[in-house]
């Protein structure tokens, strides 16, 4: 049973975006895109099995975190590429480094799957985050910490990504 205080250990989010698989792939994997939506981190992927995955804060992200009293490390997320099949599937490990307690939970696994719709004009993007042994991170990515300034988790990030790709502006823009 899942409650507000105990989110599922595997969370699945699906969104439909009027964009090509390549555009969605680029928005997930290229820092010039990841800096424009969601938490606005600068993602870096070495897109081969065993390659590094990191997210660095933008100056705006760092300033906002520090203004709220959270020290901001130079790398806020790290992990490893497990599988990369552009522009269809990306599997990585994921460890949140901003919060020491979340960092101690260790690595989780996140999968992005991009599937073109039959109409050829849109795609589904499914994000599956396996969070076994990471209850703090599970709560944050579920959006349970939104009221305390931690953002709305995966649902919020995906909504922002969709808005950016479809309109050229993120939700807040």
TrEMBL record:
Gene3D superfamilies, sorted: 3.30.530.20
Residue stretches making up the Activator of Hsp90 ATPase homologue 1/2-like C-terminal domain: 18-166
Coiled coil: none
Family: Belongs to the AHA1 family.
UniProt protein name: Transcriptional regulator
Protein's organism: Jiangella anatolica
């Amino acid at each position: 049973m899942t409650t507000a205080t105990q989110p599922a250990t595997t969370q699945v989010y699906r969104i439909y975006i009027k964009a090509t698989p390549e555009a969605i792939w680029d928005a997930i994997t290229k820092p010039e895109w990841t800096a424009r939506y969601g938490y606005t981190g600068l993602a870096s992927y070495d897109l081969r099995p065993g390659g590094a995955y990191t997210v660095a804060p933008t100056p705006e992200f760092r300033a906002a975190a520090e203004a709220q009293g959270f020290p901001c490390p130079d790398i806020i997320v790290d992990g490893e590429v497990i599988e990369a099949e552009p522009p269809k599937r990306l599997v990585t490990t994921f460890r949140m480094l901003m919060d020491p307690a979340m960092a101690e939970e260790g690595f989780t696994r996140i999968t992005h799957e991009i599937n073109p719709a039959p109409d050829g004009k849109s795609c589904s993007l499914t994000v599956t985050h396996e969070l076994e042994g990471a209850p703090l991170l599970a709560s944050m990515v579920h959006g349970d910490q939104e009221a305390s300034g931690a953002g709305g988790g995966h649902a919020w990030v995906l909504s922002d990504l969709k808005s950016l790709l479809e309109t050229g502006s993120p939700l807040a823009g």
